[in-house]
Amino acid sequence: MTPEDLSRLANKIRRRDLQAVFEAGAGHIGGEMSVIDILTALYFRIMNVEPANPAAPHRDRLVLSKGHTALALYIVLSEKGFIPAEEISTFLQHKSRLNGHPNRVKVPGVETNTGPLGHGLPIGVGMAKAAKLNGENWRTFVITGDGEMQEGSNWEAIMAAAQFNLDNLTLIIDHNRLQQGARLAETNNLAPLAPKLEAFGWAVEEIDGHDMDEICSALSPGTITAGKPKCIVAHTNKGQGISFMSDNVAWHHKVPNEEQYKQAMAELEGALE
Amino acid sequence: MSNPYEGAKLHDCRDAFTSVLEALGSDNTDIVAVCNDSVGSSKLAGFRDKFPERLINVGIAEQNMVGVGAGLANGGKIPFVCAASPFLTGRALEQIKADVAYSEANVKLVGISSGMAYGELGPTHHSIEDFAWIRALPNVPVIAPADRVETAAVIKWAAAYRGGCFLRLSRVGVPDVLPEDHVFELGKANYLREGGDLTIIANGVLTHRSMIAADLLGASGIDARVLNMASVRPIDEAAVVRAANETGAILTCEEHTTFGGLGSAVAEVVVDQAPVPMTRLGVPGIFAHTASANDLLNDFGMSPAAIADSAQALLERKG
What we know:
The complex is a heterodimer of chains A (273) and B (319).
Chain A: H1 3-24, H2 29-46, E1 61-64, H3 70-80, H4 120-134, E2 140-145, H5 152-163, E3 169-175, H6 193-199, E4 203-208, H7 212-219, E5 230-235, H8 258-270
Parallel strand pairs in A: 1-2, 2-3, 3-5, 4-5
Chain B: H1 13-27, E1 31-35, H2 45-50, E2 55-57, H3 62-74, E3 78-84, H4 85-91, H5 93-102, E4 108-112, H6 130-135, E5 142-143, H7 148-160, E6 165-168, E7 190-193, E8 198-202, H8 206-219, E9 224-228, E10 231-233, H9 237-247, E11 250-257, H10 262-273, E12 278-283, H11 293-302, H12 304-317
Parallel strand pairs in B: 1-2, 1-3, 3-4, 4-6, 5-6, 8-9, 8-11, 11-12
Antiparallel strand pairs in B: 5-10, 7-9
Family (chain A): Belongs to the transketolase family.
Pfam families (chain A): Transketolase_N
Domain Transketolase N-terminal (chain A): 8-253
């Protein structure tokens, strides 16, 4: 898929996400809008996965460490063919397998159950280490939120990944500058993230996390530095694509009312023209 | 009796763990060891020397250690994640819950130096809550072998078992209790001594002490059954119910707080299925004073003589 095709698909995924949050009356819409471009590029341009064989040993792995944005992953997995598209309408419904955080036992394509923050990167280190031990060339991608980088377990994993020379591991930090209750800078100001990762021995690239050309370029295997794990600091906006949500801390898990829903949908549709 | 092992040949169960792990590692290259700078205390030097690339030392970082274990399992490896039990289970409990138990990852959690094995180092280094913590989680069998033989059997079982588990090992020397050809079965108690007056249920380092206590009771004309209950979850409900029905009283002994461990697990079965008088010996819900591992067990009423005394007192409550 070309970057233009990916952007159109990401727009479709945003609209489906918005509709599902509106209908379910819950969700983490702000962080979903910020991560959807990255997820779309991974699944439709970068990653080698087989929807018909989700446990294929040589598949690339994605860990969505910011598991509260599961809905975005579910929609991407449905677009890719891992789960039926019509199942998205069951999101958060009684006994649906699509609950608020992804479950690998129930949902094909999910690699590990996330939800509590700071879990994904250590698991990604283990995955990348397994590939090295096996002499296999599949890649591991982990997506964290920037607020999530306050969890100490991430920094344990950052140390280990560099120590183990895991150049088959890519961490993408969805740097939307907002957490649930406040701006990250007003809580624990982790910015700038890049020099911190560099100081730990990682190769770091900063991109516009909504620019498909930049996303695809940063994720391509050709940009890997031998012997170093890679971190992509993706500068994003929470609520990207919807004017009144964008960069607004109120929209961590707020649900739009009908008027807001219509406006948001109109804005996303307008972006296609 | 300050040392119930006088005259017996004592074995450090860690040696059985590592010798079996090294043997299994020779046959199966998917077996890896993950540790937190605990190569020495987990006795992994031999494994490291034989399979240097398969000894993954993440450093002093237990949360990462368990997560790395889950990721290795996702990549097809069979990780034995080894660390002092208080730090493995306490520091990384949420990783054990989400990454191993809930994600159904094939990770073998090996809690070394569990219970009060670290003795004088104090309660920060005691692991007398781990049965309760891990037993509350689905999908992770909780197993405390009693001796060298059972430790070896449990490690063989764990390597073949498809799923996570928590293996609680000690560093305190214990004599052999189980026969050399013992095969571990998950959820099955071992009948070490038949008897009809009461049943003593124990595991880990308490099994041997319970056997001596049963001998002391025998000298007083009391016929105590002894069950070795390595598998705390799943527990052998049938053996517990049989003990209640056939002996009418149950005494449990464990190197763990009496809140939520083996005694609690047995009591849950007894209350639901066959109510009989019980006494639960263990650490009585306090942080321990300064003492060696064996002295602490004695001080908390788990010398063989004190176990026998508790059994006598329990019999008086039996109808």
